[in-house]
Amino acid sequence: MTEKPTCGLVLLAAGASTRMGRPKQLLPVHGKPLLRHVVESALAEPVSPVIVVLGANAMEIAPCLDGLPVQIVTNTGWTEGMGSSLRRGMEELSQIAPATKNVIIALADQPDILTGHITKLIETQRATGRPIVASECQGVRSPPALFTAKHFPSLLALHGDSGARAILQKHAGEVGTVPLPASRDLDTPSDYTDYLSQKTSS
């Protein structure tokens, strides 16, 4: 009998993409919208439920996830910052899956997260007992990151633009890590152009 996932996933996709100039959640990546690509990758991992937090342009973006087994929530206060979106996702998790022991916090604009990486975060937590396990690229710890229930109150208390990285820094001594070969956020048109160029040449 397959063990049920005890780890949920909250994917933050509420930003307005002001530097990109258009909703980056809908940028074509691998023949599909970026957000759908990232969500499909997450769904291949042993996580449940998968909660996607939308905000700006939510009505335009939501249809790209049609047919996927995810819980979509809208953060009406997305202008407050990433902390409010993370808090909204955690509130939804506590309501629909109150027995969840761990949560992965991930970002919608990271297309380089390979299948299996989130599984490694979960396995590392089980092996080490660390209450936080973060991705690490070139010495920088960042999402996707796993938090055990010990830190759920801190995630629920976030506000403004303070996101998961603030907790990683505050509790640095508790953090285990999993190497992430590449980590790039698609924030600007040049980021996107560079990403497409590298994918074409690889």
Description:
This protein is an alpha/beta fold and 202 residues long. The protein has one domain: Spore Coat Polysaccharide Biosynthesis Protein SpsA, Chain A. The protein contains seven helices and nine strands. A seven-stranded mixed beta sheet has the order 5-4-1-6-8-7-9, sandwiched between helices. Strand 7 and strand 8 form a beta hairpin. The longest helix is centred in the middle third of the chain and has 15 residues. The mean pLDDT is 91.
Topology:
Elements: E1 7-13, E2 28-29, E3 32-33, H1 34-43, E4 50-54, H2 58-61, E5 71-74, H3 82-96, E6 102-107, H4 117-128, E7 132-137, E8 140-148, H5 152-156, H6 164-170, E9 175-179, H7 189-201
Parallel strand pairs: 1-4, 1-6, 4-5, 7-9
Antiparallel strand pairs: 2-3, 6-8, 7-8
User: CATH homologous superfamily, by name?
Assistant: Spore Coat Polysaccharide Biosynthesis Protein SpsA, Chain A
Nearest-angstrom radius of gyration?
16 Å
Global geometry: globular
Instruction: Report, as a whole number of angstroms, the end-to-end distance.
Output: 40 Å
Architecture, CATH level 2?
Alpha-Beta Complex
The residue fraction in helices comes out at 25-40%
Task: Offer a concise description of the structure.
This protein is α/β, with parallel strands linked by helices and 202 residues long. The chain has helices at residues 34-43, 58-61, 82-96, 117-128, 152-156, 164-170, 189-201, and strands at 7-13, 28-29, 32-33, 50-54, 71-74, 102-107, 132-137, 140-148, 175-179. The longest helix is centred in the middle third of the chain and has 15 residues, at 82-96.
